[in-house]
Amino acid sequence: KLTTAATRQSLKIGLIPADGIGKEVIPAARAAIVALGNDIPKPEFIDLNAGWETFTRTGVALPEETVRVLREECDCALFGSVSSPSRKVTGYSSPIVALRKELDLYANIRPVTSVAPEAGQQPAVDLIVVRENTECLYVKQEQQTIGENGKEARATRLITERASRRIGQMAFELAAARPRKHLTVIHKSNVLSITDGLFRETVRAVPRLPEVNGKYDDVTIMEQLVDSAVYRLFREPEVFDVMVAPNLYGDIISDAAAALVGSLGLIPSVNAGDNFVMGEPVHGSAPDIEGKGIANPIASIRSAALMLRHLGYTKGADRLDLAVDQVIREGKYLTPDLKGKSTTREVLDAVLAKI
Amino acid sequence: KLTTAATRQSLKIGLIPADGIGKEVIPAARAAIVALGNDIPKPEFIDLNAGWETFTRTGVALPEETVRVLREECDCALFGSVSSPSRKVTGYSSPIVALRKELDLYANIRPVTSVAPEAGQQPAVDLIVVRENTECLYVKQEQQTIGENGKEARATRLITERASRRIGQMAFELAAARPRKHLTVIHKSNVLSITDGLFRETVRAVPRLPEVNGKYDDVTIMEQLVDSAVYRLFREPEVFDVMVAPNLYGDIISDAAAALVGSLGLIPSVNAGDNFVMGEPVHGSAPDIEGKGIANPIASIRSAALMLRHLGYTKGADRLDLAVDQVIREGKYLTPDLKGKSTTREVLDAVLAKI
Ligand SMILES: CC(C)[C@H](C(=O)O)[C@@H](O)C(=O)O
Ligand SMILES: CC(C)[C@H](C(=O)O)[C@@H](O)C(=O)O
Fold first, then answer.
1. B241 is catalytic
2. Beta strand ranges found along A52-202 (DSSP E)
3. Where would I find the Isopropylmalate dehydrogenase-like domain in this sequence (chains A, B) (predicted)?
């Protein structure tokens, strides 16, 4: 189904708002994409279901039909956010984790950049978290047994050479394209010498792969244990450029980095594989503000931009990013997470006016 | 071997400086303890080996003799910090992780408090991380196999009802004794529904245990996913009072909290079990400043205070804490991690002068 950027007549985009504020920010991203006009092939949107609400209605969190349509009919997708049940519910399992695996979207790419360091935001943050997206504890192999002293639960943490190598390649590729060309490998191999040892060694070996052919020779490499990475992110975030991490550490450090630039409501991501890309704001479903019309649409609009960039539509992506950056810098239309008073709609309108 | 505070004639303290700056800060803590004079039973110190250097010399990171002496002869201990090899080394395994398990020191208690919020340190942080110390991924059950696509490594994450219950009890006990009486349970049960589900449910059930008898009824409980806990720690640390977490999350959030109060060099901990307590600064071996004589001794002195408090020597503990707080507030003698110019020795002397 996938064609290349140049030959596409239309762009079929699956929209999966899912739960909570996902239903408020994904429509905003849609509107921003529409506003790009001829800079991208004519967008066609396909609405798709998934999430906790879908589960309570149908008993399935990720309908097969959603996966089928994404696979067979869509060029790309935008995912909103999912709510989780507050108690363990039999049969429910996170649809976003499942989608990442089903579509083999092995890289979760999360750029975190402070927009206005000149406005006193010290120090400037400009980094990308490259998070492995298919394994680690997210393989969800868990069992509970009864031992001598009560219940015992075990989960498997899986780290493979193959997944570590491809996420490593993605990270080196991104690092090599940036001015600082610096890569930090995040792990905890002082405790997990075999699993994180494999991750670390496989990533470090990427520059020596035959097909790489010296491409990454000018990328400098540093390592950082996950606990001290979080500490350093807070204390001297400027040391980081590209950070590559196994799944769970990547989840945590991207939230840490997000806290440095003012709001999770600003941070976009793409879930990228060799054949598909899905944009997704890093924030959650935010039940506390759901339905109030004040969710920050910027993370979703930026996720749309990242998605378009990944597909080769640089011009469209640049226009979205530029518009968003201007709105943030001007500071007139900001949602409450950025200490503003605007609604989702007002911020969207401000962005649309700049596009 | 253990006697109670009231009946002890002397206090036998095992000292395990281990590697790096551990060898500089543990002697400082020792000197501070000696300065307490009659506020505690006469201290007797027993020097013990462990660590990477011990391993390179003897082939064993945690000598049996060290464990035996701690078990049979000591009332308590102070541990410094360990260096890890920069590559996987067969036979080497972290001695601190092993010690926590060998002595069943199931709770790692890490208070993080800003000393001088009036001096512009906004917002004030005043929390305790209560970290489970014996299981989770730290059981170190790892294997590597060869699959279709190369190497595959698996680690087991173990969460038991028993360990979750006793760490939960410790956390409720600490929370109930604090003015705010607030407990946050950290987990990631939206992904790890069985292991973290067991942790969460077991901790939440502690107030209903028969022996608890209403003791914790006025403790309020909140839950927070580990990724958003790190985010919130940076954004609004004042919401947290006591945080209880499985081992790895506890490792990470205590570093995050430490970053908020200026330096890891300030953060103490105790590894506590039902029969033994071991103080340990939260910082690592800091190879970059090793041997320069500028390591911050405060985390170790505070760890000594925590250890003494745990044994029932409140007066001695208070004197150490008060002396340290005064030195930090005055700001005259501070090590470089706190943007000062003083040496370990100068800070220690300043503390000794206040005791
Ligand atoms: C909702 C949850 C399963 C998810 C994750 O842990 O991957 C989220 O935190 C994220 O970062 O996308
Ligand atoms: C040195 C390492 C094994 C240890 C841990 O992860 O527990 C350290 O980070 C700590 O926090 O005490």
1. no
2. 76-81, 107-113, 126-132, 142-147, 150-160, 182-187
3. 12-351
Indicate yes or no: CB of B227 within 8 angstroms of CB of A252: yes
Q: Is A251 on the interface with B (CB under 8 A)?
A: yes
On the question of pLDDT at A182 being above 70, the answer is yes
Name the token pair of B165.
Answer: 């219950």
Work out the average pLDDT over B82-91: 83
- Looking at beta carbons, which residues of chain A come within 8 Å of B143? 194
Q: What average pLDDT does the segment B180-203 reach?
A: 97
CA distance B92 to B110: 27
d(CA B97, CA B84): 12
Structure tokens at A59: 């008993």
DSSP class of residue B103 equals T
Query: Tokens 């330096």 sit at which residue?
Result: B263
- Burial bucket for residue A338 (CB in 10 Å: 0-12, 13-18, 19+): middle
Q: Do B153 and A194 touch (CB under 8 A)?
A: yes
Residue B141 clears pLDDT 90, i.e. is over it = yes
Contact yes or no for A73/A12 (Cβ under 8 A): yes
What average pLDDT does range A321-329 have in this prediction?
95
Provide, as residue numbers in chain B, all residues whose Cβ is less than 8 Å from the Cβ of A193: 88, 93, 142
pLDDT the model gives residue A1: 43
Q: What's the pLDDT tens digit per position in A328-349?
A: 999 999 999 999 999 999 999 9
| Tokens read off for B274 | 């039902």
Concatenating the DSSP letter of every residue in B148-180 gives TTEEEEEEEEEEEHHHHHHHHHHHHHHHHTSSS
pLDDT digits (tens, 9 = 90+) for B103-117: 999 999 999 998 765
Q: Could you please report the per-residue DSSP string of A263-315?
A: -GGG---EEE-SS-EEE--SS---TTTTTSS----HHHHHHHHHHHHHHT-HH
Measured CA to CA, the distance from residue B145 to residue B150 in angstroms comes to 8
